[in-house]
Prior knowledge:
Elements: H1 5-14, H2 17-25, E1 31-34, E2 41-43, E3 48-62, E4 65-72, E5 80-83, E6 88-95, E7 104-106, E8 128-134, E9 142-147, H3 154-159, E10 164-168, H4 171-174, H5 176-180, E11 182-191, H6 204-209, E12 215-218, E13 225-230, E14 233-240, E15 247-251, E16 256-261, E17 264-272, E18 275-277, E19 282-288, E20 296-301, H7 308-316, H8 323-327, E21 346-356, E22 377-387, E23 399-403, E24 415-418, E25 422-429, E26 437-441, E27 446-451, E28 454-455, E29 461-462, E30 464-467, E31 472-478, E32 484-490, H9 493-497, E33 501-507
Parallel strand pairs: 1-3, 2-5, 3-6, 5-10, 11-14, 13-21, 22-25, 24-33
Antiparallel strand pairs: 3-4, 6-8, 7-9, 9-10, 11-12, 14-19, 15-18, 15-20, 16-17, 16-19, 20-21, 22-23, 25-31, 26-30, 26-32, 27-28, 27-29, 27-31, 32-33
Amino acid sequence: MKLNRRHFLVLSATGTGGALLAHWAIGRKPSLSSATIPPPIYTSSNGLLELNLTASHTTVRVGDRSAHLLSYNGQIPAPRLEAKPGDTVRIHFTNQLPHPTNLHYHGLHVSPTGNADNPFISVASNEQLTYEFTIPDSHPAGTFWYHPHHHGHVAEQIFGGLAGLFIVRGALDEIPEVKAAQEQFLVLQDFDLDANGQINPPHPMALMMGREGSLITVNGQVNPTFSIAAGGLLRLRLLNASAARFYRLALDNHPFYLIATDGGAIGTPIESTELLLAPGERAEVLIKGDRPPKPYRLLNLPYNRGGMMGGMMGGMMGQRGSRMGDRMGGRMHPHQNFQAPAPSSQPLATLIYQGSIPTLPLPEKLIEVESLPAPDRTRQIELSMTMGTGMGMSMGNGMAFLFNGKPFDLQRVDASVKLGTTEEWELVNLDPDRMDHPFHLHVNSFQVISRNGQPESDRAWKDTVLVKGGETVRIRVPFRDFIGKTVYHCHILDHEDLGMMGIVEVQA
């Protein structure tokens, strides 16, 4: 892979050039880089975002130890990509991993065919491929991301560290109050390492629940510090890039003001004290710098995502109360090696006050969310799991995760839809142990219409929605602009690899 002059200048300006040049020079050998160095930012110029991107093994410093992870361009998290509606994206991708891989542009409304956002592409070890697509002129501004999506290797590769932000700049960024805010990107990842810094292989229970690790990082760091000016606004852009871990976030003595979800801006800011991010979800919040100037913790509060081990622990802890009580930690969710998470909150990062400015107001209005028409068709998708043999799931020791009773089949189209129509999908979680499943649809964002028959008042654009154990969630999907095959799946990525994925084909 060639490093051109523009890339060299970007790396030099960010102080990462030496580490990345060393990485390119030694090929597949692990390189040593610092996770505390911010990854470079690649920004489009004159309508083109072009870069070289290499997936490889990398050794990084995480906290007080070395970790042997997977990375793009030697960085954890990967370089941030930024583009605008109408831009062309051209990525010269090299696979230096021992297994096949590919790239998925999570949340982007771009073509699923050819060398664009095609989940069926396979880039073999030591092979190269140039991805190229154009972001539509009508694309919303938002926080998106990129990661591997080669079926059978997704959980392993994302849990190894392969993830990076893909930002689309647009109208939301130009709202005066949002534009005046400080901007901070937080990529949340967890890892499960042995004494030598190697990633532990998953235990069968970890495959069933979705693998988690006790080492939680923010931008590749352990408990980093970020700042806000007294009187100012801080815009946090949050990504859950973990393979299975949920983050229930709270900031000491500061409310969140939600301004955007997966698919972009909402109509007006929504105040809340907590924010739940399932795997794959993103959110943008504003924080007001109106508290006494001292350190404040960004916390990951206990969250119970269900499952067999959770049900057992719930029984040991007594009768469960309301569904909201369940969500607050009535059941255990195991770590990689059957370790229950700490019952107390975990600090992820620290907010400090630096300097002061005249008080900035919150925006009163953001971007109006489109109202979708009545659906042309309604279909039901049931989410479930099975234990046994005959499902072709030997890597899961007989476990299979299913849509409508069937595991993923590359040769089967599960939903044929017409371009230009709107469909309503009823997602029914049949899991007997009440295990949560985040449902993700590629290419076309949707709005959540109802949850357990109760209408959703805020129909924000989403591409990943949490369907809790025993719940029924209805989403409305407009199929626009692009024909071709793509997929929908559970974003607990072991569940996807073990069969909880389907193919949707959009036809002209």
